[in-house]
Write a structure and sequence with these properties.
Length: 163
């Protein structure tokens, strides 16, 4: 009888110890699925930029995101980011074309954070000449999974290469 009580007690303790594992360990994130969702969000944003669609270009940013654009001060928060894009999209030459094969990405083990990076051609109208100018740009973006399951940009850093 004593052996049965000891065995039942051991099984109960082992069962309870399994309940204390974090849910992230119980169901590991699928990095491929995370990156597919993020690449879709990136492609949707690029399509919106091509159409000069302000709402579509800014829909991927978290409300408290920070964006650094080439040559500019950080835009902090949704209003500041929307203001920057509003000005940029008024430039008929504005655009960014990612370089094929330059994309890199990392997904956290928990699946709630990811980082992407790429290089691109960044085009805008030169303030002095009034003509379009294209520069090489590097981008690094930190993505965070929102409560609704969508992916939002938390930090977006863009820098043109030195001339």
């Amino acid at each position: 009888m004593r052996a049965i009580i000891l065995s039942v007690s051991t099984l109960c303790l082992l069962g309870l110890s399994g309940c204390s594992k974090p849910q992230a360990e119980a169901a590991a994130a699928d990095p491929k699925a995370v990156l597919e969702a993020i690449h879709k969000a990136e492609n949707d944003q690029l399509a919106a930029l091509g159409k000069h669609d302000l709402a579509g270009a800014t829909a991927v940013y978290a409300a408290d995101a920070t964006m650094v654009a080439p040559g500019g001060a950080p835009a902090k928060g949704a209003q500041a980011i929307m203001s920057w894009f509003s000005q940029a999209l008024n430039d008929p030459a504005f655009g960014a074309k990612p370089d094929e094969g330059s994309s890199q990405a990392w997904v956290s083990a928990s699946g709630d954070l990811a980082v992407t990076s790429f290089t691109a051609d960044f085009t805008k109208t030169d303030a002095k000449t009034g003509k379009p100018v294209t520069e090489k740009m590097a981008n690094q973006t930190a993505w965070k999974k929102a409560e609704d399951g969508s992916w939002k940009i938390q930090s977006d850093f863009n820098q043109t290469y030195p001339k």
